[in-house]
Design goal:
conserved putative lor/sdh protein from methanococcus maripaludis s2 fold, Rossmann fold, 6-stranded parallel sheet, 12 helices, 15 strands, globular
């Protein structure tokens, strides 16, 4: 639950409006600008406390023409655009960061094991799969936008078919990954291996080149979608995404082979493609990828905000890895709302699917005799 600030309190009633200053040049912020976090941040404009549009960390606050603040990366600020100024986060300068609003009511006692920002990451803590399943089914029913961020370990650990099941059954709003995720999935579809290993994890003769052969087939087809339509790719995650109409964003790195024609190699263009979806996110599952998990986390607010209704609620963020390192790194980089699940990708996906199927079945109307 989210607890709204009490803006009737004198310290909010007596606070000044936020101060704005014109940007001196395109892509340059005025010295002393307010730098955003991913927490609910209220800006006082015209005597009214307002949440900004497009919240995320490491950006600036600018005023839209209708006097509603917007979070905008510095590189997109234009000369003369009005930028919020100040360093105080307690409302004294007209900007209030509500750090405790997502922590729940401390007087209400424990609210169950699955809580955000309430415990350290540990493989010894229980994982509430039924609660995660409930959240996923809820988001599917209300048309939410759940982001899945996955690394190639999902393929190597035999989680491929299970992730494709989540795609085909409407639990994936968009998939984020690197070039390797798609390459190894397509290698499995076309060559029967992932990184040259068969289903038992044993390297096969000549397998070191199989991923390159998979890349070449897609490049010859022109795109992943074209390869699916031409019958080159007939199974797996990318096939499920294309045939289900679920978008995906593949962002490359300096070590990529190929890359696939769908992989975005310009990092800023990659951020922009991801941002289209992080702005709409109502939940995130990150599995076995440090780079893309942290990158996605940096674009996310810690809450979901509907401007039309004023609703604010926590943004469910689940990070899955076989060690505490990635989850701790993600939280240290600012995505403190992330809930860590310390297990391997295969086990997580299979167990989560089991509970999602139970939860979804429990909501089906009883058959008429």
């Amino acid at each position: 639950m989210y607890r709204q600030p009490d803006f009737s309190h004198p310290r909010f009633q007596n606070a000044p409006d936020a101060r704005f200053q014109a940007a001196p040049a395109d892509g340059v912020l005025p010295e002393g600008f307010f730098s955003t976090t991913n927490l609910p941040t209220y800006v006082r404009v015209g005597g009214e406390w307002k949440l900004p549009r497009d919240p995320r960390m490491d950006s600036a606050l600018v005023l839209d023409p209708d006097n509603v603040p917007r979070v905008l990366e510095g590189r997109y600020v234009r000369r003369g655009q009005m930028v919020a100024m100040g360093f105080a986060e307690d409302g004294a300068e007209g900007i209030y960061v509500h750090a405790s609003g997502l922590m729940g009511d401390p007087d209400m006692g424990p609210e169950g094991e699955f809580k955000f920002m309430s415990s350290e990451v540990s493989r010894e803590k229980p994982t509430d799969y039924p609660e995660m399943a409930r959240i996923l089914v809820d988001e599917r029913e209300r048309g939410g936008h759940f982001i899945w961020v996955v690394g190639p370990a999902v393929l190597h650990s035999r989680g491929r078919d299970t992730l494709a099941w989540f795609v085909n059954n409407g639990y994936v709003g968009v998939l984020f990954g690197g070039n390797a995720v798609a390459v190894h999935d397509i290698e499995a579809a076309t060559m029967g291996t992932t990184l040259g290993m068969n289903g038992r994890g044993v390297p096969v003769e000549g397998g070191h080149a199989f991923h390159m052969r998979a890349i070449n087939r897609v490049r010859a087809a022109g795109s992943i979608r074209a390869a699916v339509e031409q019958g080159i790719i007939e199974t797996g995650i990318m096939h499920a995404l294309v045939t289900s109409g679920v978008p995906y964003v593949l962002t490359g790195s300096i070590r990529d082979d190929g890359p696939l024609p769908d992989t975005i190699t310009d990092v800023v263009a990659g951020q922009e493609a991801m941002k289209v979806h992080t702005r709409r996110a109502t939940g995130v599952i990150m599995i076995a990828t440090a780079l893309h998990s942290i990158a996605t986390g940096n674009m996310l607010p810690s809450y979901v905000y509907r401007e039309d209704t004023g609703e604010v609620r926590p943004l469910t963020t689940i990070c899955v890895d076989s060690s505490e390192f990635v989850v701790s790194k993600l939280k240290d980089r600012g995505t403190h709302q992330a809930f860590g699940v310390i297990t391997n990708a295969q086990d997580f996906l299979h167990v989560l699917r089991h509970y999602v199927e139970i939860e979804a079945a429990s909501r089906q109307p009883a058959a008429v005799a």
